[in-house]
Amino acid sequence: MTAGMRGFLRWCPRVLGICVALFIGLFALDAVSEGVGPFLIHLIPTFVLLAVVALSWRREWIGGAVFTGLGIVYGVGARAHPDWIMIISGPLVLVGALYLLSRSARRAR
């Protein structure tokens, strides 16, 4: 594996994990008109995802397990809305898979 590909696999899940957290945070803007309290409550999933990215910085298996697990759990819970599943679960599972690929690439060195 080339050095460029290793660098891509190292940074891609971290950057995309932050982007997914920010995307989920956009949904909290619904609660801005209700006040600060409800807005912060709606930001809890974003803070959780950012914490997972921070924990996964050196231990990619954490990000792989948590992001993939959250995507599957959301997909099962929202099975009545397939469009929601693709929009929310798709990026979560993708980031989880990239974390697992990053881990396997690092271990292969």
Describe, in plain words, how this protein is organized in 3D:
The chain is mainly α and 109 residues long. The protein has one domain (3-108). The protein has helices at residues 3-26, 36-42, 44-55, 60-77, 82-108. Helix 4 packs antiparallel against helix 5. The chain is globular and about 50 Å long.
What is the CA-based Rg, rounded?
A: 15 Å
Low-confidence stretches: none
Content-based structural category: mainly alpha
Determine the mean pLDDT: 93
Write the layout of secondary structure elements.
Layout: H1 3-26, H2 36-42, H3 44-55, H4 60-77, H5 82-108
Helix pairs in contact: 1-3, 1-5, 3-4, 4-5
Identify the notable features of this structure and list them briefly:
5 helices, 0% strand, 81% helix, single chain, 109 residues, mainly alpha
Brief overview:
With 109 residues, the chain is mainly alpha-helical. The chain has 5 helices and no strands. It has one domain.
